[in-house]
Amino acid sequence: MADIEERMTKTIDSLKDSFNTIRTGRANAAIFDKVRVDYYGTKSPLNQVATIAIPEARSVIITPFDKSLISEIEKAIQVADLGLNPSNDGKVIRIAIPALTADRRKELVKQAKTVAENSRTAIRNIRRDGNDDLKKQQKDGTLTEDGLKTETDKLQKLTDKYIDEINKIYDAKEKDIMQN
Predict the structure, then answer these.
(1) How many Cβ atoms are within 10 Å of 114's Cβ, its own excluded?
(2) What are the residue boundaries of the Ribosome recycling factor domain, all occurrences included (predicted)?
(3) Please, are residues 16 and 169 in contact by the beta-carbon 8 Å criterion?
C-alpha cells in the first residue's frame, strides 16, 4: 500500500508540474520550465543559464549569465510555443505577457483538462496494478478472501481520494485560466 500511495503522490506532483507550465494571464516563472536553450551544444533548462524575474504581473525579465546566449534564449522561447514574443536590449530579454483571448483561454482549459484526465488514468492504472498484486497474494495463500476484500476497499478509497485531489487541482487551474 505504501508503494501504491507513493506512486499516486508522484502522479499528483507531476500534474502540478504540468499545470505550472500552462500559462495564465499573469507572469509566472514556471511557464519557462520546459524551455531548453542550446548552451554550447547541450540543451539546458532556461533557469540554469539565466535568471528569471517577474517585476510586475504582466512582464518577465530574463537575464542570461552569459550575454552571448541572448539570441539562443530568444529562439528557445519562440520555439517553445508559449505564445510569447521576447525582445532584447543586448543585456536582458523582456517579455510582455499579453492578456489571453477568450479562444486561447478555452484552448488552455482544454489542455489542462487533458492533462488532468491523463493523471486520473494514471491513478486508475496504479489501482489496477495494486488489485492485480492483491489477487496474486490471495492466489499464493498470503491473503485471505476477507483480507482481499478489505485491502481492495482500502485501495479504492485511496484511489477516490487522489482522483478528488486531481479534480480540485484542475478546478483551481481552470478558474485561474479563466480569470483575467
Answers:
(1) 11
(2) 15-178
(3) yes
Distance separating alpha carbons of residues 4 and 158, to the nearest angstrom: 9
Residues 34 and 17 in one domain: no
Task: State pLDDT tens for residues 53-68.
Answer: 998 888 899 999 988 8
Whole-prediction pTM: 0.74
Angle at 22 between CA 41 and CA 4, to 5 degrees: 90
| Residue pair 27/177 in contact by the 8 Å Cβ criterion | no
Separation of first and last alpha carbons in the chain: 42
In the block, cell 496474486 appears at: 136
User: How buried is residue 132: exposed, middle or buried, by Cβ count under 10 Å (0-12/13-18/19+)?
Assistant: exposed
Amino acid at 73: I
CA gyration radius for the chain?
22
Residue type, 47: N
Of 4, 15, 14, the residue nearest 129 (C-alpha) = 4
Euclidean distance between CA atoms 61 and 3, whole angstroms: 42
61: containing domain: 29-96
At 81-126, the pLDDT tens digits run 777 888 888 889 999 888 888 888 898 899 999 999 999 999 999 9
What DSSP letter does each residue of 96-155 carry, written as one string? E-PPPPHHHHHHHHHHHHHHHHHHHHHHHHHHHHHHHHHHHHHHHTSS-HHHHHHHHHHH
- State the cell numbers at 81: 510555443
